[in-house]
Amino acid sequence: MSDSAIGIFDSGLGGLTAAKELVRVLPHENVIYFGDTARVPYGNKSRSTIIRYAQQDAYFLLSRGVKMIIAACGTVSSVAAGLKDELPVPFTGVVIPTANAAVKATKNGRIGVIGTSATVNSGSYKKEILRQRKELTVFQQDCPLFVSLVENSFISEKDDIVKLVVERYLAPLKAQGIDTLILGCTHFPIISKAISEYLGDGVTLIDSGRETALYAAKILKEKGLLNKSDKQGTCRYYVSDTVEDFRKTAEIFLNRSVGDEVSHINLEQAMVR
Ligand code: DGL
């Protein structure tokens, strides 16, 4: 069991922010990543659709024999958290670890949360932050276009389109004087340089992918599920649409070639549920 892979899924590229950190902290682990690129974005879909997609993604990873599943997706974590109760392996989403980190980071008690529309409408991060410390003030903003920018490789902080969209969405949060911002969609850390340049050094960015990877590593350790091998682990990436676009942006973000590691999968044919 301990040498089985860790399964990570997202609607697209966003979950790579968790995968990258997981490989950094647990280099001996094998990772299987699924990006549902044929159906991205999830963040503007209905609750029932998001739950159905999340179940299919998780059961696909289970069919690959994974020992843990990480929903590296703020939308799924916010809307389909109940998945935890139906899976036979440990599961985590991104909301709890990310909210924990934000609560620790804030000094002035004013936290911003950005995510997809489904995430912001669910109020998931806000509820978790206030559950932990009710005196904090939370400001939310949905930023759906960020997902499209990332999926279409508009990720440079020098790109005028990226700068414009960042300013349009984040101006209201900047005006509120937040000192901490939750990047509550795992796609957003991929454009964190542009976000940080706009908000300035006084605002700490909390990367949901990174925090979730650290949390997952802790769970695996506690459960005695860490891989005992001292060999470098392997990564396999599956996407439900064409591999080329995923490969291109993944390589920029991961800063390495992922050539043969990416395969297309037809989720309907592969479905075990
Ligand atoms: N990366 C996702 C999230 O964290 C999903 C974005 C989307 O598909 O809309 O919410």
Give me the strand/helix succession.
EHEHEHEHEHHEHHEHEHEHEH
List ligands, each type once: D-glutamic acid
The largest beta-sheet arranges its strands as 4-3-1-2-9-10
Mean pLDDT: 95
Q: What structural class should be given to the helix and strand makeup?
A: alpha/beta
Rg calc:
18 Å
Number of helices: 12
Helix content: 40-55%
The amount of beta strand, in percent, is 15-25%
- Beginning-to-end CA distance, first to last residue: 23 Å
Shape: globular
Number of strands: 10
Q: Which sheet architecture does the biggest sheet show?
A: 6 strands, parallel
Low-confidence stretches: none
What does this structure look like?
There is one protein chain. By secondary structure, the chain is an alpha/beta fold. The protein has twelve helices and ten strands. Strands 4-3-1-2-9-10 form a six-stranded parallel beta sheet, with helices on both faces. Strands 6-5-7-8 form a four-stranded parallel beta sheet, sandwiched between helices. Helix 1 (16-25) links the parallel strand 1 (6-10) and strand 2 (31-35). The longest helix has 17 residues, at 47-63. The chain is globular, with a radius of gyration of 18 Å. Bound molecules: D-glutamic acid. D-glutamic acid (DGL) binds at residues 10-11, 14, 40-43, 73-75, 115-116, 119, 147, 185-187.
